[in-house]
Design goal:
alpha+beta; 3 helices; 2 domains; 4-stranded mixed beta sheet; 2,3-Dihydroxybiphenyl 1,2-Dioxygenase, domain 1
Length: 128
């Protein structure tokens, strides 16, 4: 077994694709219409696959309330990089909101950023 996808509730499919693909640089692996306005949208930071985010458009009040707060304000998503400085500079230039300055920890170089909706992410270059 392997982890295939995790759902990320978003406000609008196209707006989310524009952000995750256009701003963060993720690959769009699938965008399939399922009928009644529902779509199967998979994005991933890895062009070759691996675990994906399933971008799911909120359709109920409960789901709309979860947009941007899917982990209760904790960092919930972790991106590993082998070139922290380059990726950090690219994200800053693209307008990604950093919530702190980069720091070094025992496990590597890290910075926390907020996505389009306010979900918190770690960008990490692990210690090799």
């Amino acid at each position: 077994m392997h982890l295939h996808a995790l759902t990320l509730v978003v406000d609008d499919y196209d707006r989310a694709i524009d952000y995750y693909v256009g701003i963060l640089g993720f690959a769009l692996h699938e965008d399939t219409a399922l009928g009644n306005g529902k779509r199967w949208v998979l994005v991933s930071p890895n062009v070759d696959g691996g675990a994906c985010l399933l971008l799911a458009e909120a359709t109920t009040d409960r789901q709309r309330k979860a947009v941007g707060n899917q982990t209760g304000g904790r960092v919930g998503f972790f991106l590993h990089t082998d070139d922290f400085d380059n990726d950090y500079a690219r994200l800053v230039a693209a307008g990604v909101r950093m919530t702190e300055t980069p720091r070094s920890e025992a496990y590597g170089k890290v910075v926390v950023f907020a996505d389009l909706y306010g979900n918190l992410w770690d960008l990490i270059e692990p210690v090799s």
